[in-house]
Each structure stands twice: as structure tokens, then as C-alpha cells.
Task: structure prediction
Amino acid sequence: MARALLTHESRRQRMVSEQLCQRDIVDPHVLAAFGMVAREQFVPGELAPHAYDDAPLPIGSGQTISQPYVVAVTVQALQLRGHERVLEIGTGSGYAAAILGSLAREVETVERIEELAGAAAGRLGRLGFTNVHVHHGDGSLGWPPGAPYEAIAVAAGAPRPPRSLLDQLAVGGRLVLPHGDVDHQRLVRITRRSAEQFDEEDLGEVRFVPLLGEQGWPEQR
Ligand code: SAH
Result:
């Protein structure tokens, strides 16, 4: 009953305060972006009433839209100020790409499942995210035409940080990705200090779908 009486807008504001502010999301730009992007537009119609649940949700093709908090931790760790060129691997629904698009100058996002890439591109276009560009391909190889990037976010778990992504990171840039085994990963932030020096910080344990591809897990699993 209570669920039906709340508008998407009020559920979104409650999500921001209860799931983000009351945890450790403090960047006001990040909080504002989550307060603006209509997550119900990125989930299948029948799941719209659950769009602001504190959980990942199925989006078809065996994939999920990540839990809002996990997207927020990733985006906050990228420390975006508005001028950046950003690469995202694993477009999925396009929700995280929309959040990144509202915080940075340009976003290139790569998805390996063609139907998801097409649906996300259509949705982002309709919602007016003209600075977000969706590509269909193997994102474990990054997206070389747009490199170097000041920030890279990976939304699928890799066995180890792909060399291609490290190479496409600008000096001073941040790469946030989950890596580890298939069932459990550590979310880390890798900062490129110089051509050859990379620092890694731990952001906590997470569970993502696998990054499948040349520099991820083998495709036939
Ligand atoms: N950021 C998404 C969550 C996506 S889930 C959102 O906001 O909805 C992770 C996505 O990564 C899945 O859609 C999966 O198909 C994709 N993926 C897995 N391996 C990939 C690869 N090598 N290149 C690009 N996308 C990949």
C-alpha cells in the first residue's frame, strides 16, 4: 500500500538519504546526480516499483543493474569535477552511464551484449544524455579511440586489472574496478602516478557479474 502511494521522485529522494547519505557517500555532486537520474527508466517496466530498492535488479540477457550504493561508491571514488573524459565498461541498462554523464564532460561506455547496448543507447538518447556514447564490443580491451581517460569505471568483475585499461588511463587518472575470483571481488581504485607507476587502494568486498572477454574471463564458461 505505502509503496503505491509514493511517487518515483519521493522514493528517489529517500534512496539518496537512506542508502547513500546514511552510509559514506558525501560528495554533494554525486548525491545531486543520484537525486536527478530517474532509475525507474532503466529497469524493465514491471520492476519500476522496485527501482529504488537497495539491491541489484535483473535487466534481461542474464545481467543486472547494480545496487545504487555500489554505483555511488564507484562514482565517488572517481572524484569527478566536470571536465573529465570517462570510460565505462559494462553499460548494462545505461544507469551508471547516465550518472557519469551528469558528472563529467564526455562518457564512452562499452557493452558486449548487443541487445543491451542498443536498448541503453535508445534510453539515454530519449532522456537527453547527449554526452554519453554507447559502443557494442569487448570492453576488456577498453575503447582506444577515446583514450586517454581521466576516469574509468568497470561494472563487471575481472580476474585482474586489464592491461588495456591501465594503458588507456591518463597520468593522474583513476580506474575503479572489481577484481578477484568469479564469486567475490575487491573493489579497488587504481591511480596512475606516472607512465609506469600505479597505486591501488581497497574499497571493499563486492559481487559483480563476470567481465567476459579477451582481457577478462574466457567467454565459454
Ligand atoms: N553499469 C550497469 C551494470 C551492468 S552489469 C548499469 O548501470 O546497469 C555488467 C555489464 O557488463 C553486463 O551488462 C555485461 O554484459 C557487461 N560486460 C561483461 N563483460 C563485458 C565486456 N568484456 N565488455 C563490455 N561489457 C561487458
